[in-house]
Amino acid sequence: MFKKVLIANRGEIAVRIIRACRELSIRCVAVYSTADRNSLHAQIADEAVCIGPPATKDSYLNMNAIIQAAINTGAEAIHPGFGFLSENAEFAKLCEANGIVFIGPSYKSIEMLGDKAAAKETMAAAGVPVIPGSKGAVKTLKEAKKIAEKAGYPVLVKASAGGGGRGIRRVDSPDELEAQMTAAQQEAKNFFGDDAVYIEKFLVNPHHVEIQIIADKHGNYIHLCERDCSMQRRNQKMLEECPSPIVDEELRRKMGVAAVTAAKECGYYNAGTIEFLVDENREFYFMEMNTRIQVEHPITEEVTGFDLVKAQIEIADGKPLEIKQEDIKMRGHAIECRINAENPDKGFRPSPGTITALYMPGGPGIRIDGAVYQGYTITPYYDSMISKLIAHGSDREDAINKMRWALSEFIVEGVDTNIDFQLGIIRNADFKAGKYDIGFLGRYMEEKKK
Q1: Is 22 a catalytic residue?
Q2: Which tens digit of pLDDT belongs to each residue from 14-46?
Q3: Are residues 293 and 13 in contact, defined by beta-carbon separation less than 8 angstroms?
Q4: CATH of region 132-201
Q5: Catalytic member of 169, 252, 292, 338
């Protein structure tokens, strides 16, 4: 097993990885920007190295600084967490060139799946259901019009190198196509350095359901059931649950088989997530694959009892999976609420500042994945997440009840939060009945304005 691992990330995911390493008796190296000098991950790691100023391009995206930190501290492997460099093929390749193990898939898999249009082509060739649309990046407006007409409006123009909801534009008619395509290309260029876009049919208010897979370097693949991530605003997830309220055993089996097929087609290993859209007829379509651990991985861990982060590290070290598909059993239901420093009443405006008082709930079935403490200052430079609150119950109703009282007990002073907003969702009759889709939050917010 590795003796020392560097965590190329910050915040709650860095803390989560440090704790997994501790359980495996691995020493940890944290990296931090000058703005994160007092962050929890930098304080609890065995070693901590400053890699630059607050701007992400000069610190958490500074590949050379991170590699040098690993070399200087003798770290044998790097865990990238999520975001930042976690899906950067160049970084994975740089790790390999310097004799450092990248705790994730091969750079070849990242390259193959990082281009969303190419990934869609690969999945279609493997027989995985895909959303109707272009077979790769669209080169011209004339080509785009032809494809959109065939798929049928509305359509989405999406960045090929996209992620996090960036570079996506909805087009409802041919008259809008040119302007929206140009806007998507410009945003894609700004955020990803690549203006390639593709087109796919827009499914009206489907469910966003993803399948967690894990695979080792010895050809063993398993899936760990599904997560419903439909509760999202502007393509940003806010609340997730496992299992999905719309997925039955037969659909779960079909989606699981499709997810494993997708992973095998790419020669994939380590943790990964295949994201699907499920329409009103319960037909599912491949959307994209995330080649990293997901923010919402804790709900899968709670329901299956399988530690995904420890498995990531062991697989990177060459160990085979010790469990088979038939060993995966679902136990109850789990819900995750992302607690953010933001003001929902002011357009979810971020609320940086110092936390002057903090009480985080606990008790049976409650888990907190966080990296804040009383006196901690949330800076304006990074994601505004305070923590992830996870409730695990014997069934969905029990999980909802636990989440309701946990949110009611959660106290954060000094910054605005979305706790009351999340509590409103949990108390909503349609949510409690499982009657929601990716359009739910938009409708919910409009209703609140009345």
Answers
A1: no
A2: 999 999 999 999 999 999 999 999 999 999 999
A3: yes
A4: 3.30.1490.20
A5: 292
